[in-house]
Amino acid sequence: MDSTPALLAPYKMASFSLSHRIVLAPMSRLRSYNFVAQPQAILYYSQRTTPGGFLIGEASGISPTAHGYPNTPGIWTKEQVEAWKPIVDAAHKKGGVFFCQLWHAGRASDNCFQPDGRPPISCTDKPIRAKTHIDGVTEASFPAPLRLTTHEVKQVINDFRKAARNAMEAGFDGVEIHGANGYLIDQFLKDQVNDRTDEYGGNLENRCRFALQVVEAVADEIGADRVGIRLSPFADYNDCSDSNPEALGLYMARSLNKYGILYCHVIEPRMITQFDSRKTEDSLLPMRKAFKGTFIVAGGYNRKNGNEVVASGGADLVAFGRLFLGNPDLPRRFELDAVLNEYDRSTFYTHDPVVGYTDYPFLETNN
Ligand SMILES: Cc1cc2nc3c(=O)[nH]c(=O)nc-3n(C[C@H](O)[C@H](O)[C@H](O)COP(=O)(O)O)c2cc1C
To answer: Where is each NADH:flavin oxidoreductase/NADH oxidase N-terminal domain found (predicted)?
Structure first.
């Protein structure tokens, strides 16, 4: 039996005193009807809350053009902010630290999710060529996006800023800027997508400008110690890849230090999509060493390799997606080295308020 559950050691993340290192990864569950978080999320998140546990909420749209899937929550209207309040409140009552993930899908969207049926927006006018949908199974074709003008890029930065303010108004402890998985920020970052000729395209510095200006705007608005960012330089999800992911990741990690943000949350190079992994020699260690704040890793972690990455200094915290989805009491199960529930992929993205959402069993209390 291993006596060093590194994942269960407390951790001080600036002003947040975490009682363990097991983070709830952000996961869209498509149960927020009409882009408004619903009461069933109170139970879902509070089931996954522990005293001093860190939760990152599902991707939440920052503006009317931000959504790419049905029934994802937003954080740009008063109604949406009000709807989040009891959910955040319930997590706080159980002692959790809860961040809101701020999301813009960019071209990974469809006219049907856009105001007046317009095309989605992006840094480019090239559509996504890949046909795989969010669930990794359904075939979907994406429309050609509208290329943002330089002026419009600045408006989107302001939308992130306003959404961060709204998240604080809803009671969240901070925000995670979604810069991963082929959505808008990642579209700007990656050289296989970004074909701009203005200050937001071309060389590495220009491609990272949008992400860093979003970070700066959000940090100015709510304080850098309440801001994290999620990145996936190595992934090719949503047809969004880069010819030199090491250089991209390292440049971002170094540049983020300028803003003194709370954390950098990075998806492991082994994850090519949200679900599929491969063998690779690539590593997040250079980014880990370069970034001065809290470093969170995600992607294909379990109890064993999660303990190892923390114990070896590869990360401060580990975010768990599918295992936490299927095991609301994951920290307890890791503590006891208990057997885990199997997650059911067929209900990840269905819209039922209970099935596959809040009906995963807890360990019996006498365990
Ligand atoms: C159902 C589901 C929804 C997801 N939604 C999001 C999301 O909203 N934002 C995000 O950054 N990642 C999202 N992801 C990716 C996860 O945060 C995580 O990176 C991924 O599941 C790999 O980690 P795992 O191997 O621990 O599951 C989602 C994953 C799943 C399974």
So the answer is: 7-335
**Residue 165: both structure tokens together:** 């303010």
Tell how far CA 154 is from the center of its chain: 22
Picking from 40-54, 76-90, 108-122, 272-286, which range would have the lowest pLDDT averaged per residue? 272-286
What residues contact 228, with CB distance under 8 A and at least 6 apart? Answer: 56, 99, 174, 175, 176, 177, 261, 262, 263, 264, 265, 294, 296
What positions carry a catalytic annotation?
183
- Residue 248 CB contacts under 8 Å (≥ 6 apart), including other chains: 189, 190, 204, 207, 208, 233, 242
Which is the closest atom of ligand 1 to the Cα of 101? 9
pLDDT tens digit sequence for 255-287? 999 999 999 999 999 997 777 888 899 999 999
Lining ligand 1 with CB less than 6 A are: 25-28, 58-59, 101, 178, 180-181, 230, 267, 271, 274, 298-301, 320-323, 348
Helix (H, G, I), strand (E, B) or coil at 253: helix
| Beta carbons of 56 and 176 less than 8 angstroms apart | yes
Residue whose CA lies nearest to ligand 1 atom number 3? 27
Cβ-Cβ contacts under 8 Å for 309 (sequence gap 6 or more) = 297, 301, 315, 318
Structure tokens at 357: 């959402």
Supply the pLDDT for residue 2: 52
In angstroms, rounded to a whole number, what is the distance separating the alpha carbons of residues 19 and 11? 6
Dihedral (CA of 278, 281, 284, 287) sign: negative
E strands, the chain, are 11-13, 16-18, 22-24, 54-61, 97-103, 121-122, 146-147, 174-179, 227-231, 263-267, 294-298, 317-320
The average confidence (pLDDT) of the chain is: 95
H helices present in the chain, as ranges? 40-47, 78-93, 150-169, 184-189, 204-222, 245-256, 285-290, 303-311, 322-326, 330-336
Please tell me the predicted confidence (pLDDT) of residue 365: 66
